[in-house]
């Protein structure tokens, strides 16, 4: 009886492991697709950062002086532009992203970057800066103290710098003044756009939606778009319908791809990469040329001259090549193990993969950065 219970427990554990493995690659729809119309909007503005300790723009940056004079005049202070010094002021560009469904009075983060010749923005305060969208309308206003996660100090002979001191952020530094006109839930149909277009993935997504709701609500329009009809019982609960829909899971499909970066020697390979039967030979040829000078001196009373004679030494060394045969259909783990066995470095692997691709034996896209 006890042995039977142990077998049942082991069987249940194996079944649970199979379930975990089958759902390990599953992703939610909200990670794979985005609802059309629900998106961020980019904002930009031009402003001034004040309060710098002599690390602002120099007098050569004319637009900083003009901006400072214009601001002072708007505040009712008349100044002579020729007498203005801007060592404590820096002209900056302020950028932000307006999230979807942002309401008037909401706070958003902003990024501040110098556009003059300022040395450091640490300790500065951004003055009131209107932020405009692509339509030219003001949607937010930014102001506040900068957070610069860097340091820079030194003199004429030496300088120490960490990160970029001419760029910073202001958490919750802008207030939304205008809302983007968008009314959610009026349309009877919702369009989801895949972040990575794929026919198999969008087909699986539509099938998952139809299976969950028990009706043919979703249909695939193309490789990158799925259209979902809002059922009648959810007409007044579109938010709840979208919440249930985006939590559905499926296993996305992907292309077999190898991404290599020749500058850094980085290689990223997907698990679906396959190769046909191919033989790989790897060998290193080392050529060393060294030159040294020797002095040739004549015998005493011979009337000759002392001359310098160059001597060239040539050494050629070649490592023993190893031929490795990779069988057809092997996985990427087998490929990596076989190439590591012949001592291939990451840069050697890049050259080997390019050669295998040129030979027509690599069933994957090779992307070289």
Textual characterization of the structure:
This protein has 369 residues and is α+β, with helices and mostly antiparallel strands. The protein has 3 domains: 41-176, no CATH class; 183-250, Ribosomal Protein S8, Chain: A, domain 1 (2-Layer Sandwich); 258-290 and 312-368, no CATH class. The chain contains 7 helices and 23 strands. The chain has helices spanning 2-23, 29-32, 62-74, 199-213, 238-246, 332-341, 346-358; strands at residues 27-28, 33-35, 41-50, 90-98, 107-114, 125-132, 138-145, 151-154, 159-162, 167-176, 189-194, 218-222, 225-229, 249-250, 257-261, 266-269, 274-275, 278-282, 285-296, 307-318, 322-326, 362-363, 365-368. The strands form 8 sheets. A 6-stranded antiparallel barrel has the order 3-4-5-10-7-6. A hairpin with a 4-residue loop joins β8 and β9 (159-162). It is flat. The two termini are 62 Å apart. Mean pLDDT is 79; it is low at 4-24, 285-291 and 314-318.
């Amino acid at each position: 009886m006890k042995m039977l219970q142990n077998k049942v427990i082991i069987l249940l554990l194996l079944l649970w492991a199979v379930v975990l493995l089958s759902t390990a690659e599953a992703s939610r729809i909200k990670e794979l697709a985005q609802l059309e119309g629900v998106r961020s909007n980019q904002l930009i503005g031009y402003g001034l950062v004040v309060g710098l300790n002599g690390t602002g723009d120099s007098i050569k940056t004319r637009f900083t002086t003009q901006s400072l004079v214009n601001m002072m005049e708007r505040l009712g202070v008349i100044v002579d532009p020729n007498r203005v010094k801007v060592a404590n002021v820096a002209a900056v560009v302020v950028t932000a992203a307006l999230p979807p469904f942002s309401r008037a009075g909401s706070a958003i983060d902003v990024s501040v970057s110098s556009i003059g010749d300022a040395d450091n923005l640490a300790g500065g305060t951004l003055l009131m800066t209107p932020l405009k969208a692509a339509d030219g309308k003001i949607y937010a206003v930014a102001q506040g103290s900068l957070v610069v996660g860097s340091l820079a100090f030194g003199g004429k002979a030496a300088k120490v710098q960490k990160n970029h001191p001419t760029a910073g952020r202001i958490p919750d530094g802008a207030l939304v003044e205008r809302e983007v006109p968008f009314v959610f839930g009026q349309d009877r149909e919702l369009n989801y756009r895949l972040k990575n277009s794929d026919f198999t993935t969008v087909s699986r997504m539509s099938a998952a939606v139809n299976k969950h709701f028990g009706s043919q609500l979703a249909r695939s329009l193309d490789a990158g778009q799925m259209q979902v009809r809002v059922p009648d019982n959810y007409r007044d609960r579109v938010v709840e319908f979208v919440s249930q829909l985006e939590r559905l899971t499926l296993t996305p499909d992907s292309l077999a791809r190898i991404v290599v970066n020749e500058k850094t020697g980085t290689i990223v390979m997907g698990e679906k990469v396959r190769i046909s039967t191919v033989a790989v030979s790897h060998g290193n040829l080392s050529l060393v040329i060294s030159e040294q000078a020797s002095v040739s001196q004549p015998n005493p009373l011979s009337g000759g001259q002392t001359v310098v004679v160059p001597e060239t030494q040539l050494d050629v060394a070649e490592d023993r090549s190893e031929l490795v045969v990779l069988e057809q259909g092997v996985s990427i783990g087998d490929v990596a193990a076989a190439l590591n066995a012949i001592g291939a470095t990451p840069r050697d692997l890049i050259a080997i993969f390019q050669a295998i691709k040129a030979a027509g034996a690599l069933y994957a896209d090779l992307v070289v950065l």
